[in-house]
Amino acid sequence: MSQGGAAARKAAKPQDQGWAWMVLLATVLLQGLTLGFPSCIGVFFTDLQHEFQASNSETSWFPSIMVAVLYGGGPLCSILVKRFGCRFAVMLGGLLSSMGMVSSSFCQSISQLYLTAGLITGLGSCFCFQAGVTVLGYYFVQRRTLANAIASTGVSLGFTLWPLLSQYLLDEMGWRNTFLIFGGILLNCCVCGAIMRPVQLASGSLIQSPRPEEEPGGRAEEAQLSNGASSPHPELQQHTRRTACFQLLQKYLAFDIFCQNKGYQIYTIGVTWMMMGFALPHVYLVPYAIQNGVEERRAALLISVIGVINIFIRPLTGLLSGHRFFTGRRIYLFSLAVLLCGLSNFICVISAKFGVLITYCVIFSIAMSGIGALTFQVLMDVVEMDRFSSALGLFTILESITLLIGPPLTGLLVDITSDFHYVFYNSSFFLISAALFMGLSFCALEKKNKLKEASKVPLDNPSKYQYSEMPTEPQSESQSPPAVVYITSI
Predict the structure, then answer these.
(1) How far is it between the farthest Cα atoms of the chain?
(2) CB 273 within 8 A of CB 434
């Protein structure tokens, strides 16, 4: 009997070995197919403008909606994963992404693209990416940090390959047939999802798809609702429903953390403001180069250069930030990367020659690698891990709003002035101001904490005022992974 129990325990530990590496490979492909996909939209920008006689602002709504839904759909994906598991969410996302791009090939107006490629494909990409990253938390425990670092290279691969493939297909068969082919390519997300089989414990239960009554507080909430439903007092029933809704919002959108934790508050506001300008070069760099006489194939190569450099620099940045010297100081390294990203935009204002633009892409991609590698690591530093999932929900929704409105507002400014330089002026303004705000605010917060410590004033809740690094060690094998952790990446 003991031998049978040992065999069962061995079979119930797929983490960090065996099939887990196949799941990691599938996650790398998912990130390349989903997060890397919006990088190619700039290749079609000019053709879509001519096809639908649309302005810069109208055309830019299409990629803005796609990226905003990709990031902002996190809470919806979280609910889907809790109900049906990661495999179902990924495969559903693959079907939605494919259906959105196939439908886009038949669109007769730019507004129809907002629905098909923007909303449907964006939502499908969100399900694929976020559920794909979540499943790594189940398959990797001791090597979870390494697995997430390897998985993030998929974004860089997508940045490299999608623009080149897009330009080739666009030259050969036009944008409609290209979108049709993209629909077939995105169906591969379903194949990746099929690989992500649920992790089975020794008891035979599946830890990826808990039943609603097994969720923390699920039975209590169900009892409250049932009591409220049978109550003869409508006021009590209404109060119970309001309480349940508030608990649901508290679970997925941590407004209490935002109000109480000063570090989280500063960081969320800073990143949200930063996103107003962060996506602008990705959308407008290719049209800007083409307008200034750069050949279309070489213009598409610019985005690929950013992707290639990201492949090598992003892991190095992650290793550098993990050094003990940066413990508690990662926010300043992040602010420096944002500042360099903003300053690099002035290179495009100086000249639009291909050699100058290549130099810009090199510097911009180095800074972008730092932002991508540190964004969620800093968030883990300022928020307790037991509330990380809900804090991330509010964080991604707020940044998706600015990702949505940033490119169209800048496109409207370009339409009015007929000058693409305002794209890079705007991007620099938002990035530099966000970097200074975060760096100076955390510096002031740290000084305030030191003064309070020196005066020995007791604090009832230090997390309200203090920026400190929270422990992020991987869980032991005896502990089951969190029910849902959805992580986004830039």
Answers:
(1) 79
(2) yes
Hey, what are 399's tokens?
A: 């940044």
Span 5-43, pLDDT tens digits:
444 444 445 676 778 889 989 999 998 999 888 888 888
DSSP secondary structure letter of residue 198 = P
Residue whose pair of structure tokens reads 């929704």 in the numeric block: 397
| Residues 123-157: tens digit of each pLDDT | 999 999 888 877 877 787 777 666 776 777 788 88
CA distance 322 to 149: 12
Mean pLDDT of 221-232: 44
- The answer to whether residues 401 and 68 touch, using CB atoms and an 8 Å cutoff, is yes
Does the pLDDT value for residue 464 go beyond 50?
A: no
Cβ count within 10 A of residue 228:
18
Q: Which two structure tokens, joined as six digits, stand for 324?
A: 């003990």
* Mean pLDDT to the nearest integer, 229-240: 56
CA atoms in the 13 A half-sphere facing the CB of 125: 33
* Alpha-carbon span 27 to 14, nearest angstrom: 16
- Quick check: pTM over 0.85? no
250 phi and psi angles, rounded to 5 deg: -65, -30
Lowest mean pLDDT among 103-117, 215-229, 344-358, 449-463: 215-229
Structural domains of the chain, ranges and CATH numbers in brackets: 17-198 (1.20.1250.20), 254-453 (1.20.1250.20)
Three-state secondary-structure class, residue 349: helix
SS3 152: helix
Q: Which residues touch 41 (CB under 8 Å, ≥6 apart)? A: 62, 63, 66, 283
Give the span between the Cα atoms of 441 and 465, in whole angstroms: 12
Helical H segments across 261-383, by residue range? 262-278, 280-291, 296-321, 330-344, 346-350, 354-382
Q: Which residue has the tokens 């190095």?
A: 316
pLDDT class for 479, splitting at 50, 70, 90? Answer: very low
Do residues 312 and 442 lie in contact, with contact meaning Cβ atoms separated by under 8 Å?
Answer: no
